[in-house]
Amino acid sequence: MGRVVGMVSIACLVWVLTGFSEVALADALNEPVVMTQDGCFVGAEAPGTGGVVMASVSVSEQAEAWDRLQEARGQAMSGSRQMFTDDFEDGNIDGWMLASGDHTASVTSATAANGTMYSMEVTGGANYHYTGAYATFPSCTPSYLSVWLQPAAIGVSTTYFVVGDSSIGTNNGVVFLYAHDGGVWRIYSGSAYSSLNVYTANTWYHHEMILDWNTRLVDWYIDGVLQHSGIPFRSPSTTAVDRVHAYHYAYSSTGWFDEYYFSDSTAPTATPSATPTDTPIPTVTPTPTVVPTETPVITPTPAPVPATGPAGLGLLLGAVGMVLALSFYRRR
């Protein structure tokens, strides 16, 4: 222990006098990454311990990974699964705060990702973590994280994307991603997981991460290409996240951040509103049309027809005889 302390003290002096980077110092010492009380940083661009894991992904793995990413994208964009989004297209950075005075943050139209108009520009850095801009959101367990990042320079540790909970300052979050001063992107999680390729300054890179909260592992993609699968969560104790940080470690650095999109692909889509039960239209019982009863045509009773035939003729002759007799009698 005394040898390590002595080496650290001497190395700190050498670093101060020569201007070596903190990573070069850590590599030279081959010691765990620590921050001493006097402010001397040993590999502190990513606090923790462990070696470097280089990316190595086969063609078949990339094909399978692409399918997984497409599925995650499709699920993430459907329904109301969004946990946190900000594309700065409203022309402001409302909702973002500064953790300290060594950074500035503002919306800019000078550069933006993915064909959009605006991004967030963050400048500053003082060899400390979590001192730049940050935003909070309701506690959640996102299964998909997406962000576009653009560092302004190579050779310095900048453009940090760190997602975690309220204890992020001590547990370093679930995802700890940054532009490493060696020219590659890195996710630090006990070990440093490096990107397949070096990055270029002033170029946008689309980072996507698929998180499995059961296994507590992350698959990391850059521009749709798998970099590493099965990266352990940076903090094994974190059960949910509620904030994201955007900052630089190196002094006086600049970088741009855009198109934040966090979602839970396993969450249900928007709860549909209850389909109202249609009120049945009451059936109107039709009033039956009363068919008027036809007034029967009264057939007049025919006048009695005098009897005909022999009996009738006798009566008629009798009547005539009586009339004649009466007439003869009156004459006398």
Summarize the SSE layout with pairings.
Layout: H1 2-18, H2 22-29, E1 34-35, E2 41-42, E3 52-53, H3 59-76, E4 82-86, E5 96-98, E6 103-108, E7 119-124, E8 133-140, E9 144-151, E10 158-164, H4 168-171, E11 175-179, E12 184-189, E13 191-198, E14 205-212, E15 217-222, E16 225-232, E17 241-247, E18 253-263, H5 310-331
Structure description:
- It is a single chain.
- With 332 residues, the chain is an alpha+beta fold.
- It contains five helices and 18 strands.
- The strands form three sheets. Strands 3-13-12-11-10-17-8-5 form an eight-stranded mixed sheet, with no helix packed on it. Strands 4, 6, 7, 9, 14, 15, 16 and 18 form an eight-stranded antiparallel sheet that branches. A two-stranded antiparallel ribbon has the order 1-2.
- It is elongated.
- The N terminus is likely disordered.
